[in-house]
Amino acid sequence: MGRGGNPTEGRCLLGIDVGQTAVKAVIHTAELCPVAVGHRASPVDRSTPGHAERSQQELWDAVADAISDAIRVSGISPTSVAAVGIAGHGDGLHVLSTRGLPLTPAITAMDSRAHREASELAEDPERTRLILDRTGQVPTAGSVGHLLRHLLRADPGLLNGAGAVLSCKDTIRYRLTGTLGTDYSDACASFLDLATAQWSAEVVAAYGLPPEVIGMLPPITHSADIVGTVTDVAAERTGLAVGTPVIAGMHDVQAAAIGMAALTPGLLSIAAGSFNTNGVTTTQTDIDPRWQSRLSITPDLRIAMSTSATAAPALEWMLTTLGATTASARTELFARASHLSPETSVPLVLPFFYDSPYGAHVPASLTGVRGWHESAHMLRGVLEGIALMHVWHTRALAERFSWRHPIMLGGGLAKSPLYVQLVANALRAPVSVVVNDEPGALGAAALAGVAVGVLDSLAAAQQLVDMSAEIEPTAASADYWADVCDAFDSLIGDRIDQRSTVR
């Protein structure tokens, strides 16, 4: 990665990024140079409509195997790992029993089974406003509160055996250390009052949940606080050394912002992974239904982020539909799409295949399809749709926040030069791509390094992040993208109007 560093000298840092479909464990040198990566799929079960889940045991197995792989591949002694940092996807639901055993599946944020609960809240302006004012967001169907309410409707006795309501990364922390807790960046996704940085009984009630839920919410600490050490059982399962410090960790958006050198006020980071994520780091406390104002690694720092499930799930749907199911077929298809003229008309894709910022009832759409269009045009159409959602999200953020250029870009799709150029053209702004393939794991490792003194500060850590040269929007694409943006806005409006009429 250009900075050198011998992993057998000094102290190494392990960063774990627990995503919604994959788990990455990356060992870094003290200079944050990746040494070895352990990667495990964590398949999501969608066999029941609206459900997106896996078992908590399967999730832990995937993480433990990824850690074990990283240590084995690196060739280092486990005692060389100075600290462990964990990042995980936000929202979703993970409930443990009073004995610390899984009580519910590991439900992901892509789950929409609680659409009824989300609709009921949306139709109650008073409760919606209270939750927005207190927590900084209007919750989606995949939020902790809605999912818990949904499960309690199906099984009112669920809470009788419940001991803790956790976020994704907190379940991994528990498996590693045996300690229960969370950090501010994940706590504010559910029942946290942003003004006091404390759990709120009023917010719990606004979700229609019983008051005893408050007693099941874990202690909250700063993300970089050391909250435990690797236990004997976890060490045997993962290959880590007993007693290795583990920090509280953070929401994956916060970790990725660090890994893209963007967790500094006035910087915008965007990523296309499981979600289309667009976040500006800020100390402002502005709130709006179109974005989530989330506390970061400390309560005085925030990321205002506007997100939707309109990135990798949409791309995967299109690739599978086109029959591009192998790596070679996908590489070939991307190559053909890259060779299309930049101003070639392609189908306009509204990528709401699984969810939308307007609710699950607003569906996806493909329009402008012509007989001469083939699979390469369809692929570029969905990539443009994902880029257009970046436009939609950042347009809302720009009404209250400003940011410096370049825009920091990451996520799995950022490996595609075609997508990167489309994003620059769509946003009409220069973008810089993180060189590291795993910015979430890098961010988690960096904060762990700060916690144990391997790194001097978060600012110093972010200076070690490698970013590409700026990719500028092409002048020739300006008119094309102005027209596409107008057509996209009209298509969204038409879809919303059609659903409103049907309903």
Describe the structure.
- This is Carbohydrate kinase.
- Residues 297-451 form the Carbohydrate kinase FGGY C-terminal domain.
- It holds the Pfam family FGGY_N.
- GO terms for molecular function: kinase activity.
- Residues 13-259 form the Carbohydrate kinase FGGY N-terminal domain.
- By secondary structure, the protein is α/β, with parallel strands linked by helices.
- The chain folds into three domains: 12-250, ATPase, nucleotide binding domain (Nucleotidyltransferase, domain 5), CATH 3.30.420.40; 253-309 and 396-463, ATPase, nucleotide binding domain (Nucleotidyltransferase, domain 5); 312-392 and 475-502, Nucleotidyltransferase, domain 5, CATH 3.30.420.40.
- Helices cover 37% and strands 20% of the residues.
- The chain is built from 16 helices and 23 strands.
- The strands form eight sheets. A six-stranded mixed beta sheet has the order 18-19-17-16-22-23, with helices on both faces. A five-stranded mixed beta sheet has the order 3-2-1-5-15, with helices on both faces.
- β1 and β2 (22-28) form a beta hairpin.
- α9 crosses α14 and α11 crosses α12.
- The longest helix has 25 residues, at 478-502.
Task: Describe the secondary structure blueprint for this structure.
Blueprint (H helix, E strand, L loop, with lengths): L11 E7 L3 E7 L5 E8 L11 E2 L1 H19 L6 E8 L5 E4 L8 E2 L7 H8 L2 H11 L8 H11 L7 E5 L1 H10 L4 E2 H4 L4 E2 L4 E2 L1 H6 L13 E2 L4 E4 L2 H7 L6 E3 L2 E2 H8 L7 E6 L3 E7 L9 E4 L6 E7 L3 H10 L5 H12 L9 E3 L14 E3 L7 H23 L6 E7 L6 H11 L3 E3 L5 H14 L5 H6 L14 H25 L1
Parallel strand pairs: 1-5, 5-15, 9-12, 16-22, 22-23
Antiparallel strand pairs: 1-2, 2-3, 4-7, 6-8, 10-11, 13-14, 16-17, 17-19, 18-19, 20-21
